[in-house]
Automatic annotation (TrEMBL):
Pfam family, one: ECH_1
InterPro entries attached to this UniProt entry: ClpP/crotonase-like_dom_sf, Enoyl-CoA_hydra/iso, Enoyl-CoA_hydra_C, Enoyl-CoA_Hydratase/Isomerase
Protein name as annotated: Enoyl-CoA hydratase/carnithine racemase
Source organism: Palleronia aestuarii
Gene Ontology molecular function: any one: catalytic activity
Stretches assigned to coiled coil: none
Family indicated by similarity: Belongs to the enoyl-CoA hydratase/isomerase family.
Family annotation (SUPFAM superfamilies): ClpP/crotonase (SSF52096)
């Protein structure tokens, strides 16, 4: 394992073979998102997407929380221009995670609130420890869901459940969040990151072409059967002709692990 610090220690990157853990390191603020942390995450994700030695990432917090949301101290006394600039800057991070060339798994322990909820939900997979808490928080300070949470949370739990959650606010414990579909995998307390790394390793073992196509189609899920068939027609022929198809069939017949060639 190697360590790489970025963004004035707001984010630490830890490497485990072909997996990178991006750790938010502002435990004194429960990893609240300020401009420096957002920029550090953007830089780290961009660099890891360009790194051929990394196949998947895990997003985790430090201390007792995943992320408490936006930094409230920086929201006070803004001009109209600053308010518009702030939200535009905030949108870069969920877009970066959503459009990442490599899958990202969220590992949630403790509080996951406000913008932190949106960031966790936009990841490909979400693992939570049993003591994790998911808090809308926006309604408590007179704001609306941001960083795309109205889309990413709705994609996980459905429109009516999301509408109720964001209108009434409140806290979901990890078990309820798992039952609703917000959480993909429930882990013992303190084990969310280990489970997330395990899932990332499983993702890294899948065929790159398969992984790429599946993630692309579920970024904007097909609205109809015809949409799904059109996507297949555009991409499946390329996979039919790939060296990895031949390798996958050979490995299946020989009862061994495949060695994928597509990067």
């Amino acid at each position: 394992m190697t360590h790489t610090d970025t963004g004035r220690a707001h984010v630490r990157v830890e490497r485990f073979c072909r997996i990178a853990v991006l750790r938010m390191t502002r435990p004194e603020t429960r990893n609240s998102l300020d401009a420096a942390m957002r920029e550090a995450l953007l830089q780290a994700i961009g660099a890891l997407n360009d790194d051929p030695a990394i196949d998947a990432m895990v997003l985790a917090g430090s201390g007792r929380a995943f992320c408490a949301g936006g930094d409230l101290n920086t929201m006070m006394r803004m001009t109209p221009e600053q308010a518009e600039g702030r939200i535009r800057a905030a949108h870069a991070l969920p877009r970066c995670i959503h459009n990442s060339a490599k899958p990202i798994v969220a590992a949630v322990e403790g509080a996951c609130a406000g913008a932190g909820l949106g960031l966790a939900a936009v990841c490909d997979l979400l693992v939570a420890g049993t003591a994790a808490r998911f808090v809308t928080a926006f309604e408590k300070v007179g704001l609306m869901p941001d960083v795309g949470a109205a889309w990413s949370v709705t994609a996980r739990i459905g429109p009516q459940a999301a509408r109720r959650l964001f209108l009434l606010g409140g806290t979901l414990d990890a078990s309820k969040a798992h039952e609703m579909g917000l959480v993909d995998t429930l882990a013992p307390e303190g084990r969310a990151e280990a489970e997330a790394v395990d899932l990332a390793e499983r993702l890294a073992r899948t065929a790159p072409g398969t992984r790429r196509c599946v993630r692309e189609i579920f970024r904007e899920p097909p609205a109809s059967l015809e949409d799904a068939l059109r996507f297949e027609a555009a991409h499946q022929p390329t996979l039919y002709l790939s060296a990895d198809l031949h390798e996958g069939i050979a490995a299946f017949r020989e009862k061994r692990d495949p060695v994928w060639r597509d990067a």
